[in-house]
Amino acid sequence: MKTAPDWSPDSWRARPRVQQPNYPDESALRAVVDELRQLPPLVSPWEIDALRAQLADAAAGRKFLLQGGDCAERFSDCRADTITNKLKILLQMSLVLVEGAQAPIIRVGRFAGQYAKPRTEDLETRDGVTLPAYRGDLVNAPEFTAAARTPDPRRLRRGYSRGAMTLNYVRALVKGGFADLHHPEYWDLDFVERSPLAEEYQRLVRRIGNSLRFMENILGARPGEIQEVDFYVSHEGLLLDYEEAQTRWLDAAGRWYNLSTHFPWIGMRTSDPSGAHAEYFRGIANPIGLKVGPATSPERLLRLLDVLDPAREPGRMTLIHRFGREHIRAALPPLLAAVRASGRAPLWVCDPMHGNTRPTAEGLKTRAFDDILGELEQAFELHAEASGRLGGVHFELTGDNVTECTGGARGLSEQDLKRAYQSEVDPRLNSEQALEMAMLIARKMTALNAR
């Protein structure tokens, strides 16, 4: 795609903007943004182009997207063990999904930049005290004090640094053999080893190992030559000052790229076709994710697609639908029909997390494993009924032993949530629940492929 002549990285400033922090010192914000403009990019345009080509393959049914990670990363989680565990569980899930999809898996992590979150309300009141809402570590801190909740532009610099360190470590692991498909035992997590599905997982690992060796023999490759997997990162492109600062022009391609991440997405709260986020996203060459849900009418979706992808470029648009188990059957088919009638062929992905969030009696947010699975199973069926194909899944998950979602093979109850509830925002699947989910999805895909 060529950038439109009426677009620039800051043209969003002339449009209505939402979900942006109210910084008390505008000059301090400008100083940090100017500094970020001079720092090296976090990803390369060539990586972005490679991902866009793979997403085009997924939209055509030749690959399958697995996207997952934290609801909102914390700066304090920029640690080797936390990063390793997130990478491990995504690699494990992708290994399982290879068999179900019978296609290569595109692996995209929700990290190295997922430090900001939209909020329903700008303010929060406790015991008669009102302060700004916590908007993620990129903006402020979760502690309920005036100092912690005041938006601080210096956090943009810290977010860039944490993103760079996370990406550096992920690349070192992937390039250093950690993701070697010959040795998936490197990815084993102690928590997963205790899973009721551990034996089934190990059988699957052995089957894939045998298939890999067979493929090497057929291709004439020496053992060990097929070692690496591609791995990409994503985050919601929420704070436009931060995204603009990492937007760079590539002369060779004649277009602008957001080089803070490979795959930014637009959330439900910022998807106004006339708004600042749509204006910013329409000019970057990255593949774009767009969340769609109960409030997304067919007319609004088609208008957004016209704004964001007027040239209908393969791999450009990924539509990530999130309705909830109770609403997907009524809400998704009209969108599928409208997009298909328009002649567009985006990649469709299911986010079964956000539409299934509910509070417990004590006020904790949670999600039930069966609701998440139920929405996913319906998504596969509804796409098939519409003569299409669900091309990916999008999860909020962690590689750590948290207890934030109920259900799963161990039957976590609401009483278990307090044991290891760590999220400051939304609840995540733990490693065992995530791997179980992948295995159940793989079974569903195998059944659909057999029809």
Can you characterise this structure?
It is built from 13 helices and 14 strands. It is α/β, with parallel strands linked by helices and 451 residues long. The protein has one domain: Aldolase class I (TIM Barrel). The strands form 4 sheets. It has an 8-stranded parallel beta sheet with strand order 11-10-9-8-5-2-1-14, with helices on both faces. β8, α9 and β9 form a beta-alpha-beta unit. It is globular. The two termini are 38 Å apart.
Low-confidence stretches: 218-227
Strand order of the largest sheet: 11-10-9-8-5-2-1-14
Proportion of residues in helical segments: 25-40%
How many helices? The count is: 13
Overall spatial form: globular
Order of helices and strands: HHEHEEEHHHHEHEEEHEHEHEEEHEH
CATH superfamily name? Aldolase class I
Topology:
Blueprint: H1 26-38, H2 45-59, E1 64-69, H3 80-101, E2 105-110, E3 123-126, E4 129-132, H4 146-149, H5 154-175, H6 190-193, H7 198-219, E5 232-236, H8 240-245, E6 247-250, E7 255-258, E8 263-266, H9 276-281, E9 288-292, H10 298-308, E10 317-321, H11 328-341, E11 347-350, E12 357-359, E13 365-367, H12 369-385, E14 392-396, H13 431-449
Parallel strand pairs: 1-2, 1-14, 2-5, 5-8, 8-9, 9-10, 10-11
Antiparallel strand pairs: 3-4, 6-7, 12-13
Helix pairs in contact: 1-5, 3-5, 3-13, 10-11, 11-12, 12-13
